[in-house]
Amino acid sequence: MSTKHNIIKLADISLGVNYKDIKNVHLSVHPPTGRVTISAPLQMDLETIRLFCISKVGWIRKQQTKLKNQKRETARDYITRESHYYLGQRYLLKVIEQNAAPKIVLKHNAIELHLRNGTSIKQREEILHRWYRQQLRKLILPHIIELEKKMNVKVTEVCIRTMKTKWGTCNAKAKRIWLNTELAKKPIESIEYVLIHEMIHLLERNHNEKFMAYMDKFLPNWKHLREELNRSALGHVEWSY
């Protein structure tokens, strides 16, 4: 739990300092505006923290620029004839109101959203996102089994949730992989790239030469796929702090 707070000013950058019962300094740049916070050990003096922040100004500005330039989808109203994407293909949403449990049916070039009368926009969003999560999980499980054999690794758990800035992440110690729900909207090649990237972290935690060699081995065209994915938009998010 934080015990005290300070603000450090570095030119046009303001850093909120939170003292916590921790061993190491943690610096974070938060979307969407690039707000900067730093968590520091209770015994660390403010001048030491300030010098640490000065050494990280270049990194902070790089992250802020990245957040500023990150493409995002526009907000959706979840109404008939609105565009939505699944596995890289564009579909038109077709809302069908009925007195039955909600469900989603994929038909030709349409995503049919069956729901009860009076279902709110937020509820419609959650129904669709739940479907995306289910589809992504069914899609990736066979790939994980195949990659586990090929890489000689074991994934203990796969979690799928909406992430604000990342396509995926890996807890190498727990052998747990997290994937962004938004990947269900991307081409299968993009999904495979993120999955392989995160599973390689079970072999090498850092993005070093050894990691790159594994990427070349298991997915030779990974650089092209990374560029394609990074040029695509993340989902729209209503930001709050």
Question: Could you outline the blueprint of secondary structure elements for this entry?
Answer:
Blueprint (H helix, E strand, L loop, with lengths): L4 E6 L2 E8 L5 E5 L4 E7 L4 H10 L1 H13 L13 E4 L2 E9 L5 E5 L2 E6 L5 H31 L5 E5 L6 E4 L4 E5 L7 H13 L8 H10 L3 H10 L10
Parallel strand pairs: 2-4, 6-8, 9-11
Antiparallel strand pairs: 1-2, 3-4, 5-6, 7-8, 10-11
Question: If you had to describe this structure to a student in words, what would you say it looks like?
Answer:
Helices cover 36% and strands 27% of the residues. The chain is an alpha/beta fold and 241 residues long. It folds into two domains: 5-69, no CATH class; 83-231, 2-Layer Sandwich (Zincin-like). The strands form three sheets. Strands 1-2-4-3 form a four-stranded mixed beta sheet, with helices on one face. The chain starts with a strand and ends in a 10-residue tail after the last helix. Residues 236-241 have low confidence and may be disordered.
